Hints:
Mean pLDDT of chain A: 85
Strand order of the largest sheet of chain A: 2-1-3-4
Largest sheet of chain A: 4 strands, mixed
Strand order of the largest sheet of chain B: 2-1-3-4
Low-confidence stretches of chain A: none
Low-confidence stretches of chain B: 41-47, 198-203
Strand content of chain B: 5-15%
Strand content of chain A: 5-15%
Shape of chain B: elongated
Number of helices of chain A: 16
Number of domains of chain B: 2
Number of domains of chain A: 2
Structural class of chain B: alpha/beta
Shape of chain A: elongated
Order of helices and strands of chain A: HHEHEHEHEHHEHHHHHHHHH
Largest sheet of chain B: 4 strands, mixed
Largest interface: A-B, 113 and 115 residues
Number of helices of chain B: 16
Number of strands of chain B: 6
Structural class of chain A: alpha/beta
Oligomer: heterodimer
Distance between the termini of chain A: 16 Å
Amino acid sequence: MKLLALAWKDLQRQSRSGLLLVMALGAPLLLTGLLFFAFDSPSGSPQIATVRLAFTNLDRPPAGSPIAAGRTLQALLSAPSLASLVEVVSVPDAAAARAQVARGNVGAALIVPPDFTAAVLGTAGPSTVALIADPARPLSAGVVRDIVQRALDTFSAGALAARLTLERTSGPLSGVLAARAATSVAQGLADSTGAAGLQLRAPPGSSPSFAARMAAQVMGAMMIFFVFFTGAQGASSLLREQEEGTLARLYTTPTRASTVLGGKFLGTAVTLALQTVVLLVASAVIFGIHWGRPLPLLLATLALVVAAAGFGVLLLSFVRTSRQAGPMFGVVLTVTGMVGGLMTATFTNLPPGFELASRFTPQGWAMAAWRACLDGADLGAMALPLAVTAAIGVACLVVGVPLMRRRFALGSGT
Amino acid sequence: MKVAAIARKDLLQVLRDRRALIFLLLMPIAFTLFFGLAIPSTGATTQDARLQLGVVDADNSPLSVRLRAALAAAGAVRPEPLSPLQARFADDLVRRGDDAGVLDIPPGWGAGLAAGTPPSLELVADPGSQAGMAAQAAVGATVQRFLMSQRIAATLSATLAAAGRAGPSTTPDVTSVLDAWRQPPLGLAVSEARAGDGSSEASEGPYDQASPGMIVQFAVYGLILAAMVVVVERKQRALARLATTPTTRATIVAGHALAMVTLVFSQVLVLEGFGQWALGVPYLASPLSTILLSLALALWAASLGMLLGAFTRTEEQVVAWSLVAMFVLSGLGGAWFPLEVTGPTFRAVGHVMPTAWAMDGFRGILLRGAGLEQTLRPALVLLAFALASLALASWRLARRPA
């Protein structure tokens, strides 16, 4: 009963701490919410801002040319179908266009050279269109580059048809045939649907939206980070009790040292379990995260609670005062969290070594277990990360409890 | 003089606490290094940064081999052949993120393409992931060229046949058209614009986002120090004692603000120095712009700290609200990732935050080589935020009993 009373007292005290509530529940939800808000979109795919494109048309079509390719390119890029991606602005000269990019007024500038139409018609050699990108907006530059490259490919197809015809035929009709071939190819491409020839299929069970997938990964990572933080804070209640003198008063009562430690540990474990459950439910409701099957989820929660509580006890055994505790917990948990991959949960193509390094931290193994849970893995696939996460927690307790007994003179309790 | 004395007292008080140095300098440096390592730029590493694309080539014809080579040459993806056994787990490979996508080339694709009736290729990719979308774009662009080549070959055959010129030496096949694409009639040359000297081939380094991002985030940490000074002074009745001396409230507020501006400005300069000399982040590309922006950032962070101190009662409240402010201002302001990659609403909301203006200013200096003229606007916005915060803090402190 004493054990429960001690645990209950700690639970009450922690629930009254505004800072702990902010750190345990507010911060992970806030951080996930920010990222969800940043990347959520009606289409389910990431969005980028409409890029303002300065268009400088220096194209001088040859006399009698049937087309003005520079103007056609501008019309193509100004098509309503591209309006959400590119907003074309005419700028008379190249220097002004470049200056607009350098000032950040436009996202990119496209400069069409004087021989553009001649190259399209095949009456001149290759021609190069210049794209001036804003280095501060690389994503916008990439989008514009893809769009312009596709448009140029369409023009190039006609020009290639003309060039190949001229290479393979001779005589007075050669030029006529080349023009006919170029027109025919261009017409055919204009009539065709761009998506033909490639079908996209999403693998079953993949997340419906980019933001939802990101929210799930970030929420998992932040939950682990802040559960470890709460574990350390919970363990440090012993330190506060010592400094406030209540621990000494507790020693004067007929309470065993193991009861004191057990009560503290139980209070922390219940706090951690409550924190995890509240975060799981809240994130499922707010962000629509599907956390996986119930049994793996339950085991992942238990393993996380054991690891966080154990790690907290181990950390506390190295701390002398509550003034030391804050910075030490902050630094150690931040560094192990970073190495454990909690800050890079959504990164793809991480350099080699990051994955390996994460396996040297309890947070890294906990993250592996939660990732598997999110992927809907069965218990067999989750066994290793679950077992290692829990084993680290137990190992921390085995090392930390004797140190703490010595540190807080708990061995002297009756 | 009184202002300077109060500022000196505050600075001594803060610097005596070694813990402050951990959060003012060591943590931002650690975060900067970590995120710089985690996001290497393509130019700064020998690692292959291309996305892995599994390819199940059941056709294995000259054209399908050529398609694989073209995908590799395009630069965005790295095609990896999959065995028939691996191919059975294509969905799992994509779902787990091992492959950005899996391209299935069916038997007879090459022959079908040459004949003008290619069976459709299938790309297994998650349209909800960035990697999936990038793979889709890269494969789509390359496949488009193959289909165009077939159309060109077919059109030329028909045109030449109609003119009575068709023959083995004149009629091109898909392969010869693909060869012709090696020298396309129209090319695209991409360069980057920088202020002053026109365009250059410079590209973003690994720390050009992480370094200013962490400077801005941990400048906001200055909030805790600034607010704590005000709260602790009030709690220990030092403010009440000070009020019995011939010192005006304005002098007290100015003294505290001066200390915090000095502290945050020094912090920002040290972190910029570390960025410049240890990480190669070009803060000195425009020294005056960097100093102007750093000063404006320090003024704003200190003023917001004063505001927080004026409205909070306990140290615990200060820490809680400072952390919330740090997360919200850093996240929304683009300190963690460029606002360019976010949705329109987030971008609009983000630019209400002073941190977004600070990041705009820093990225302008580092990536575009922006001078004083271009940095003036973000600096003025930060100063406006600083003045508003300071005015509100002064008003609150004047009304609040010591």
